[in-house]
Amino acid sequence: MSALGWVLADTIRAERFLSLTGLTPDELRAGLGERAVQGAVLDFLGSHEPDLIAAADALAVTPQALIAARDALAGGQEA
């Protein structure tokens, strides 16, 4: 997941992500392909607009596309 890579690329942001989600590095590694982890990443981005905008820019997508992916995961649909 590209968004996760973006989150983890910055140490301070990665630590904030782990702290806010309650995930440990081991849990994160084990859950890389799980919808819950993907949703946690997109929730994290969606809850802080500066990160959302920066991630969207870095990933060459719109912020709305990231929010739509989060909503699709939450609704049980494929993103």
Structural Rg? 12 Å
Query: What is the first-to-last residue Cα distance?
Result: 12 Å
- SS-based structural class? mainly alpha
Largest sheet properties: none
Low-confidence stretches: none
Instruction: Report the total helices.
Output: 6
Quickly count the domains.
Answer: 1
Describe the protein.
By secondary structure, this protein is mainly alpha-helical. It has one domain (2-74). 75% of the residues lie in helices and 0% in strands. It contains 6 helices and no strands. α4 crosses α6. The protein is globular, with a radius of gyration of 12 Å.
List key phrases describing it:
single chain; 79 residues; 6 helices; mainly alpha
Give the SSE map.
Blueprint: H1 2-8, H2 11-21, H3 25-30, H4 35-46, H5 49-59, H6 63-74
A few lines on this structure:
The protein has helices spanning 2-8, 11-21, 25-30, 35-46, 49-59, 63-74. It is mainly α and 79 residues long.
